[in-house]
Predict the 3D structure of the following.
Amino acid sequence: MVLYTPGRTSTYPTDPVEGGIRAFFLGGGDEVGNVGCILEDSTGTRLLIDYGLAPTKPPKYPAECPPVDDVIITHAHIDHIGMAPWVAGHLGARLHGSPLTASVSEVMWRDTYKVSKIEGYPLAWDRRDMDEALHSWVTHRMGEWFDIGAWRCRFHRAGHIPGAVMVEIETPEARILWSGDMDTRDSPSVLGAKALECDILFLEGTYGNRVHPRRLDEERKLADRVLEIVDRGGTALIPAFASGRGQDVLQILRREAPNLEVHYHGMGTRVTKHWMDHPEAVRDPKGLSKTWRWCRRVSSKSDRRKALEADAIVTTSGMLDGGPAIWYANRLRHSANNAILLTGYQAEESGGRLLLDERKLRIYGDIVPIDIEVDQLSLSNHGGQKELTDFARECNPKHVVIFHADEESREALNILLGEEMTVHLPPNQTEILLI
Ligand SMILES: [Zn+2]
């Protein structure tokens, strides 16, 4: 299956830009994840920001990218970085990112490659493209200016996960701020993002229609729930992403309930090693390494069996779509003392969503009823409605472009911000001109 024929199937407009900034979402405009956006102006400077994929079954890809020399990758989540090997391998583009994003990229790409082989889904890039991509990184520290064509760019901390950046772009006509995935609140792993005055704000809107509960209350609630489960003789299974949520959960449990016996299993072990090599990107590097020594890492089959006796198991995948979480769920489901604690949003068609809606899980090909307790907490690393609207107002732009959001979130932000700035709700593969 050929997904991409370079230069033949891109829907990007061929006419030059006469004035203003042209933005064209290849993906991630009117959907969460799957991000890729081209920015271009009359100087002929053209930049791709992020090129990800949606890890659905089968995966979803953004539209084909037109020729570009430079790509900025905001952070190392697969829905922002998953297709970067294609642009490096097929278009010869440079990848700009933070040093931590560049080092974590290899873990993410190797895992994507492995999963595509196991699941039998086609991937638009191969190992050679991945090697090319690993050699295409140009890294920049926070606050350091660098040139792309006629533009100047610099990175700012985005919150969200360590290494995640917002991008400030100075063009001859406008100052642009691209939020990436962001949160202005501090989390255990990273400090929050700060607003920046700009003319054009590209703002992620994942939680545009939801107000988060107070983060610290929710963190304490997680520890309380685990203690209750342990008191009745059970084990809490906590599925969490390898990059961000898993490390947050471990740090919360160690801080709130240090006597718990918590086991960690998954790709996060490799990711955390990269975090520790980049202490400048982590909120509390010493605390993180103490936490890492405090929890017990599962690395063998006998470790897995021991983990079944633990107080809590933190493991991947975060939305129960595979990984060790399924192995543990399959064993823990037989005793009513055990419980599954979900820590955030569960995407449509994910295992976690099936569990919440129907109390069932897909386990090694079979749909199996899950009769143990299931609870959901809100430990998101994206800003909620209040954080997003406060941030947009402080940035004080003429235009705000809401992306990485579903219809309800887009509309909610449109209503809240529409009287103060021009709101754009870009569909994928449609040009918008910002003047
Ligand atoms: Zn992300």
Summary: The longest helix spans residues 99-119. Residues 75, 77, 160, 181 surround zinc ion (CB under 6 Å). The domain at 21-210+381-434 is CATH 3.60.15.10 (Metallo-beta-lactamase; Chain A). The mean pLDDT is 95.
